[in-house]
Design a protein that fits this description.
The chain is mainly alpha-helical. The protein contains 4 helices and 2 strands. A two-stranded antiparallel sheet has the order 1-2. It starts with a helix and ends with a strand.
Length: about 80
């Protein structure tokens, strides 16, 4: 879990990659500015991708999720 634990270290690979791949959201997160749920989800996917690059043996295969909508419906994501 290097990307998750190292992404706040400005000198780390994870930090540099997160900033280059998701600059607006990452800048907002480290500056304590608000981020949307969608931005947070996208950033989590970025961290997962970085983790997959740095520790491929520790990261599982692609995960399929389900989004449950406020009206009770849902769809695969």
């Amino acid at each position: 879990m290097e990307a998750i634990t190292d992404f706040l270290n400005g000198k780390s690979y994870a930090y540099k990659q997160a900033m280059s791949r998701c600059p607006k959201t990452f800048q907002n997160l480290i500056s304590d500015r608000p981020v949307t749920l969608d931005e947070t989800a996208a950033f989590a996917r970025v961290l997962g991708g970085i983790e997959e690059e740095t520790n491929p043996n520790l990261v599982g295969s692609k995960v399929r999720g389900v989004e449950i909508l406020p009206n009770g419906g849902g769809h695969a994501i």
